[in-house]
Automatic annotation (TrEMBL):
This is 3-hydroxybutyryl-CoA dehydrogenase. The keyword Phosphoprotein does not apply. The keyword Oxidoreductase applies. SUPFAM superfamilies: 6-phosphogluconate dehydrogenase C-terminal domain-like (SSF48179), NAD(P)-binding Rossmann-fold domains (SSF51735). GO terms for molecular function: 3-hydroxybutyryl-CoA dehydrogenase activity; NAD+ binding. Residues 7-185, 314-492 form the 3-hydroxyacyl-CoA dehydrogenase NAD binding domain. The lineage of its organism: Bacteria, Bacillati, Actinomycetota, Actinomycetes, Micrococcales. Residues 188-284, 495-591 form the 3-hydroxyacyl-CoA dehydrogenase C-terminal domain.
């Protein structure tokens, strides 16, 4: 029988602590809520009031329940008030010396059976435990931000934690409606160990001006279905906390990719800690607010002058695969005349049939009117000759991902297309500049990286090379807007924004599995329920295909020469064995 908890304490009422207090109070458990001084206590009380007021105004909590919830919380600045609590959770800033000091104090105040838990994200629970007289009763109980919303809790068991203790804490997490996963004491545990490499990489992209903060965030939201972009998430986590987590992870693993990006330290020193201070990567209406306000980096304010654009009415699409078919449909639906070129008449017919079928499905689902379908069909012209692209304003190629094939195609387009035509490649991994260099007009060449399925996915990465003309970029951005797509703009580097941020994280998950730190199920659960991602890394790898993922990871490794980007040996072995994911019936999991 798991222990019944009726009274607990939370020490530190900041970003996490205040939310943890609410979680307990909502579940009919009395809470002693402790802060350093009266002012901080008031602030913590204010956070709980604000949060429950919102729940009441949204009809998720009645006024009586709100009153009962508040009555369960005793706010104080005296540590002595924890004396009769069965469990204390510490959520003070991420500094080892501070946590050790607090645990030593708590140890002296609580009863002999009380459990002491830390909400640390990265510090060694073992080191914190040994600051007490009885390390066996110390565990990690790592909630996720915002604690009342996210359903995941990592329970960290050190080599000395008593079985009963972590079993009781696990059962308590379940009672709170959370999904607990028990893991060993390693910096970052599951979720942060995988998340923070990705976040730090996004910060480095921003710092190097590879892409704007808005574009980095939009790319991950629209390209991967993440609930928030990485920089907005850093602001939510708090840049000071994020810095400490990265620093601890770096010191433990010496992985360069965890060394905090230099700009983080500068921002923290300048007091730009994210939402809690009113400013981080973005600017907020006031400290603690989630409401964004414009600042000097906001695109509308920053873009004083508007770049001239070229006129695009007619479009050529080269290719006959999934991407080409989707792109043809997207242009035709937006009213562009589309000439699509494939290598044989049967392929032209197949593409025409595929577009017709897809439009028909849209009509049946009520997403498209019959008139709109007919109009789109009226914009289509199939051809087997590239010469038919002589007069188009824009060509988008989506042929096989093979540089020799693409270069030969660009040489041909260079000879055929009219002066001023924009030549775009939808490559996801090859250098756009290689396509540009195959022509005599590299300034007209640009990347237009659509996502699959192109009809559905809103994101297009617009990739400029060192030679792309600014008006070409501006024109393609404008065309994307006409297509109802969201364009993000970045330089010509392997992986662009999305794949460069996504695949190293997936690769890290494979390495974690390989190291036997956690199972594929636990890792998938952590990332889905702890970070709100639409799929866990292993689910996603199996969908994308292990061979495709390995190829992308190899490209990234070759381009950046980062040791941490080296493909996980387990990924290589699975591909060698022919376990490619869903398409082959087996990958990280086996399919019927
Ligand atoms: N921010 C996140 O997204 C997140 C998520 C999970 C876990 N964590 C972990 O939770 C812990 C707290 O992080 P946070 O982001 O809430 O930090 P925070 O800075 O928002 O809040 C920390 C609070 O602790 C208080 N405090 C400091 N010393 C204290 C003391 N001696 N007694 C009582 N209160 C004291 C501070 O006044 C402050 O209000 C850290 O260990 C962090 O790694 C953070």
């Amino acid at each position: 029988m798991a222990r019944e908890f009726s009274k607990v304490a939370v020490v530190g009422l900041g970003t996490m602590g205040a939310g943890i207090v609410e979680v307990f109070a909502r579940n009919a458990i009395d809470v002693v809520a402790i802060e350093v001084d009266e002012a901080a206590v008031d602030k913590g009380r204010g956070v709980l009031q604000h949060s429950t007021d919102r729940a009441v105004s949204r009809g998720k909590l009645t006024a009586e329940d709100q009153a009962a919830l508040h009555a369960r919380v005793h706010f104080t600045s005296s540590m002595d008030d924890v004396a009769d609590c069965q469990l204390v959770i510490e959520a003070v800033p991420e500094h080892l010396h501070l946590k050790k000091e607090i645990f030593a104090k708590l140890d002296a105040v609580v009863g002999p059976d009380a459990i002491l838990a830390t909400n640390t994200s990265s510090l060694s629970v073992t080191e914190i435990a040994v600051a007490t007289s009885n390390p066996k009763r110390v565990v990690g109980m790592h909630f996720f931000n915002p604690a009342p919303v996210l359903q995941f809790v990592e329970v960290i068991r050190t080599v000395v934690t008593e079985d009963e203790v972590f079993e009781d804490v696990k059962a308590l997490a379940q009672r709170l409606g959370k999904q607990p996963v028990v893991v060993g004491d390693k910096a970052g545990f599951i979720a942060n160990a995988l998340l923070f490499g990705y976040l730090n990489h996004a910060v480095a992209m921003f710092e190097s001006k590879y892409a704007s903060r808005e574009d980095i965030d939009a790319a991950m939201k629209l390209g991967c279905g993440y609930p928030m972009g990485p920089l907005a998430l850093m602001d939510l986590i708090g840049l000071d906390t994020a810095y400490e987590i990265l620093d601890t992870m770096y010191k433990q693993g010496r992985d360069r990719l965890h060394a905090p990006s230099p700009i983080l330290k500068q921002m923290v020193s300048a007091g730009l800690k994210g939402r809690k201070s009113g400013r981080g990567f973005y600017t907020y209406a006031e400290p603690g607010s989630s409401q964004l306000v414009d600042d000097a980096l906001t695109p509308a304010a920053a873009a004083g002058e508007h770049e001239a654009t070229r006129t695009v009415r007619t479009v050529g699409v080269v290719g006959s695969g999934t991407m080409a078919t989707g792109i043809i449909e997207v242009f035709a639906k937006a009213g562009y005349d589309v000439t699509y070129v494939t290598r044989s008449q049967p392929k032209v017919d197949a593409v025409t049939a595929a577009v017709q079928k897809s439009l028909e499905k849209a009509v049946q689902r009520g997403k498209l009117t019959q008139e709109a379908r007919d109009e789109a069909l009226g914009h289509l012209t199939g051809s087997t000759s590239l010469d038919d692209l002589a007069t188009v304003d824009l060509v988008v190629e989506a042929v096989v991902e093979d540089l020799a094939v693409k270069r030969a195609l660009f040489e041909n387009l260079d000879e055929i297309c009219k002066p001023g035509a924009i030549l775009a490649t939808t490559t996801s991994s090859l250098p756009v500049v290689e396509c540009a260099a195959a022509t005599t007009r590299p300034d007209d060449v640009v990347g237009m990286h659509f996502f699959n399925p192109a009809q559905v996915m809103k994101l297009v990465e617009v990739v400029h090379t060192v030679s792309t003309a600014p008006d070409v970029v501006a024109t393609v951005q404008q065309v994307c807007a006409d297509l109802g797509k969201h364009a993000v703009t970045c330089g010509d580097r392997s992986g662009f924004i999305v794949n460069a941020l996504l695949f190293p994280y997936l690769n890290d998950a494979v390495k974690m599995l390989e190291a036997n730190y956690a199972t594929a199920d636990s890792i998938d659960t952590a990332m889905k329920t702890g970070c709100g991602l639409p799929m866990g890394p292993f689910e996603l790898l199996d969908v994308v295909g292990l061979d495709v993922s390995l190829a992308i990871q190899r490209e990234l490794y070759l381009e950046f020469r980062e040791r941490g980007f080296a493909p996980a040996p387990l990924l290589e072995h699975l591909v060698t064995a022919g376990y490619l994911g869903r398409k082959s019936g087996r990958g990280f999991r086996t399919y019927a």
